[in-house]
């Protein structure tokens, strides 16, 4: 065994695993030159055993179907978990940690649910557990929050962290297609899964938000305490009306520290001013805005998924772990995460947030309708910034759009309940929250 | 002496030094919670001795006029150099390193010229020399290149790294003011120095580019080998004509790896497509695009200067050094920089680059003028993408704008020389390079 090189085993040879193996095999000299570490890929675990994947062929003895060949292998220094899912990944990571191996993972679902437990185990066994690729692919947002913004109280985070939704919303803005058609197109192009639920319902974004919140606020909030809305309810009408009002619709993962030291944690479609940087993050790209007490507003942009961008982040984590091994450091665990259990910061219920709103009602086209709606809103302390009424839908109904000033969500819900009981209002209402703080 | 805490001495109590002292004093608990290190500010060296600066008052015994109280003080673990300039900063940093102290600096001018020598000295004495704040203020671009993109061959870097120039150009785009007036306004508002040469002539941007190139390519190219143009030649006419053509003018620091393994290194005003993210980085903000072989296109945005954003980066560097001390690691020097001397990568002379160009000529308004100019360009293999002729300047001359396809710079220079000899061409020509690769 070559003691001067650090040996890597990969669990899972899917898209990202293939990218990681390509970099480890093809860019070995570059990595050594850039970082001073010598990495050797030794084993790849795969359910079935192809000897090659698109663009790379590994020696036969690198490939195995038995995870024990990696997690229990004394020759392996760093285990890279890329099988996804919860149960198997969790038990293999634990076994690797107990065997004294450093672990790199891209598994946001696992960390969102069991992060606290896994980080404690890693600390106990003095190994690192790195997870840069779990959020926003190639964008180094995890390292930035852990290492670069440590002198900052993080005031807010606004992330476009789901490439599937961003691709779909971009398509809906750029052509006249509706949700169902753009989903079919995204599935055909490989941007959306056959079962797109995790992406389009905002669950994937919520899991990533949970990691960002753990790092920023040192608190592990279960995803089921977040307010999570996906994009399935966004129609061409909302896209077009928003645009006319100077806004673009994006699915944002939002965390905000409130004045009374709580954390807003929410994922939902959001209206952003159309000239803002975040509104112009298009296609399958991701971007995360972080506003810190010292650094002020920042934005990080790049590919949030895909073979090579994600592999770039995984290999950076491998290199960090390899440096720790070479320097003889036992671990460099995220402090924020380990302090979760002690944190006093609670989640701020969605009812308590204050924001601006876009509302659309379909109403009977007759005098006094706007007055009735505005009167109810006024009773709930909601004041109106602008109103647009569109041409009739049919002979008797019209779309009525309102942009409000800042209002409390609870008031908005109560007001909507009353408005929807008005006889002149037909069908439901559309409500989309507006964020102006990211208007840079 | 409290062995559990790491002691900090600051050389220079100007804007950034004040910000650093504010964070170290006011955010001590936050830093400890976020990073696990306990930092203590012990000494601040200042030429004169005010006991307070805007927003902070330090104990009298923290303040001194003698740098030896920091660099020779056995109690001090980390020296923060914020005096700027070359000679004094260099000698104090060397003295601190020889005394076994870790050093944090924001001094790009010093590193651009003497980086290689200083990093070698730091390596010899097994201390770290951190410099995140030297480039793009609060944006963690140094750490990203050093640690996050190590698995990437860096294909290109495009940076808006001088906030003064970006503020001035933004003002020129947003109102009808000319260079001289916007400079006076920037000076009045504190965005530009009384002597603005380093900023407006592109020298500051070139020094920062030299650090980015050292990290990305492991080669220390002296700034005098770069092609450096400032913004003093940009008039309202160029701003307005570019905008009509769908472009925005930004001062960019550009590094590109060529196919034959050379590095283009240039700073100049650049036309960017107006819908691109980089074109929409406004005011005193900075942004750096990095395109890597694995990660693809990325962009990092934030405040490039100012008290607290810069202090945020300085303190992140202090925390990194403190962690090294606590973990007993002797150093974590940038590998790329130390390998400079061995690098085979040469700079690509400006004559050899290929890019697109914006050209403006003032010509006599008579038939055949465009034909003569196009014929010369054609002779030099320069083909034209579009032509716009504006209304007459006076009774007999008009402005003629050309956008070219990709052409070699040497050909462009030779063609221009011939064109300027035409009798119908009055005065000089305006030439601005166009970059389309950052059109995301």
- Multimerization status: homodimer
Distance between the termini of chain A: 53 Å
Shape estimate of chain A: elongated
The largest interface is: A-B, 59 and 59 residues
Q: What can be said about the biggest beta sheet of chain A?
A: 12 strands, mixed
Strand content of chain A: 25-35%
The tally of beta strands of chain A, per DSSP, is 20
Which segments of chain A are poorly predicted (pLDDT under 50) over 5 or more consecutive residues?
none
What's the gyration radius of chain A in Å? 24 Å
Structural class of chain A: alpha/beta
Considering DSSP H and I runs of 4 or more, what fraction of the residues of chain A is helical? 25-40%
> Would you tell me the overall average pLDDT of chain A?
93
Number of H- or I-type helical stretches of chain A: 15
Describe the protein.
Chain A is built from 15 helices and 20 strands. Chain A is an alpha/beta fold and 440 residues long. In chain A, the strands form three sheets. In chain A, strands 9, 10, 11, 12, 13, 14, 15, 16, 17, 18, 19 and 20 form a twelve-stranded mixed β-sheet that branches. The first copy, chain A, has a six-stranded parallel β-sheet with strand order 5-2-1-6-7-8, sandwiched between helices. In chain A, a hairpin with a 4-residue loop joins strand 11 and strand 12. In chain A, helix 4 runs parallel beside helix 5 and helix 5 runs parallel beside helix 10. Chain A is elongated and about 80 Å long. At the A-B interface, helix 2, helix 6, strand 14 and helix 12 of A face helix 2, helix 6, strand 14 and helix 12 of B.
